[in-house]
Design a protein that fits this description.
Elements: H1 10-14, H2 18-74, E1 91-92, E2 110-111, E3 124-131, E4 151-159, E5 166-174
Parallel strand pairs: 1-3
Antiparallel strand pairs: 2-3, 3-4, 4-5
Amino acid sequence: MNTGNRQSFPAIKQQRGAVLAISLVLLLVVTIIGTTSMQTTTLQERMAGNEKDLNDAFQSAESALRDGEQLIAGSTALGTFATGTQSNAGLYMPSTGSTERWEDYTNTWASDGSGSAAGDINTSAYIIEELPVDSSTGGTLEAGVAKPAEYYRVTARSTGNTATAEVMLQSIYKR
């Protein structure tokens, strides 16, 4: 045999597959970075969705609050205020018990047209309570005013697209 034509490649005998090991480590690092990035993006997407849902509920409650205030402003006589737990128009006398009327969701809340009743998802409703007037001051602190003022508490409640996004707003209206 002619062994004189063979060349010896000493560099090939010294390689141990370091490129493969480094490539696998880099692939693992890139996979971890990608997975972490996706988890962060998913969390941020959920937070933005929850914020939008809460904002929608707030806007709906604000609208219902304004509807209740417009009902007070636009009518000369609001009708009969209910003293019990039922009222067709959402009009109530102040609560005499330990639970305020606006905290009791079994009351009939007047709907602003966006939903059926308080407690449902994506609905808004309001109740109006006639507040008592202190007769010793004549009903007002304004000088020279003979007519006693009437005070009403308007409470609006709304839920967003999920039951966890709930907003309740109140205003005191003087007429």
